[in-house]
Amino acid sequence: MSPLIAALLGLIQALTEFLPVSSSGHLVLASRLLNARLENGVAFEIAVHFGTLLSVTWLLRREVWGLMKDLGGLLRKRRPSPTLLYLALASLPAGLLGVLFKDALEARFGDARGVGVALIVTGLLLLSTLLRRGGDRPIGALDALLIGFAQAFAILPGVSRSGSTIAVALHRGIEAEAAARFSFLMSLPVVAGATLLKARDLLAAPPPAEAWLNLGVGAAVSFIAGIGALWLLLGVVRRGWFAHFGWYCLPLGVLTLILI
Fold first, then answer.
1. Residue 174's beta-bridge partner residues?
2. How far apart are the C-alpha atoms of 179 and 234, rounded to whole Å?
3. In whole angstroms, what is the distance from residue 253 CA to residue 156 CA?
4. pTM of the entire structure?
5. Number of domains within the chain
6. Is the pLDDT of residue 243 over 90?
7. Would you state the pLDDT for residue 40?
8. Rounded to the nearest 10 degrees, how much is the dihedral formed by the CA atoms of 194, 231, 183, 52?
9. Which domain holds residue 9?
10. Which of 20, 27, 24 is nearest to 127 (CA)?
C-alpha cells in the first residue's frame, strides 16, 4: 500500500466515521476496490480511528476538558458528574467485547460479504428512526447502557457506530443533538482503549518502516477530514435528516453482496 492509498483510505475513514454509514465497512470495501493489500489492516484501522479520535477531542474540547476535571476530582474524592458516570457505563459493553473476542473480531475485517449484510442492517436501523416519536429528554443510566450495547454491536465492520448509537438514543426519546454529542464522546474511551491494546501488539512485532509511514499518513488525513465530517453530521442531525442515510446504506449493502 502506497502513502497515496493510505491518504485516500484515511479520507474515507474520516468522512464515514461520523456519518452513519460505517467507516470500517467502507475501509474493507475500499481496500478491495483499490486492490490495496492491508498487511497491517487492523493496525491501519486503529491509526485512522485515532486520527478521528483527535478530531472529536479538538471539536468537543470543552466537554472533554470538563470530563478530565471530573476525573481529577475523583482523586480528591469529589462526586463525579452524571455525564462521566454515563460514559463509563456506556463504554463497558464494547470494552468487554473487545478484550474477550479480540481475535475473532479482527478476522471479520477481511470479510466483504459480511460487510454487505451489516450495511443492510445499518440501513434498516437508520430508517427505523423515521417511525420514532420526537423526544427532548436527557440521557439516563439505562439509556447509556443500551447505547453502549449498540456501540459494542458496531464493532462488526459494516455496522455504523454513530448510526447505531444515535439511532438507539433517538428511539429512547433523547434530544437529537445531545444524542450525537454523547455518541461522539463515548467513542473516546473505546477507541483509546483499542489503540492501546493494538499498540502492545505493534511494539511486540513492529511493522516495517514503510508501514509506519502509511499509518501516520492515514491518521493525519483522517484527523483533518474528521473535523469537517463532524460538523456535517451535527448539521444533519439538527435538520432531522439523520434517517435518510439509510437509503445509502441499503443499496450499498445489496450491491456489495451482488458484486463482491
1. 137
2. 10
3. 14
4. 0.84
5. 1
6. yes
7. 57
8. 0
9. 3-259
10. 20
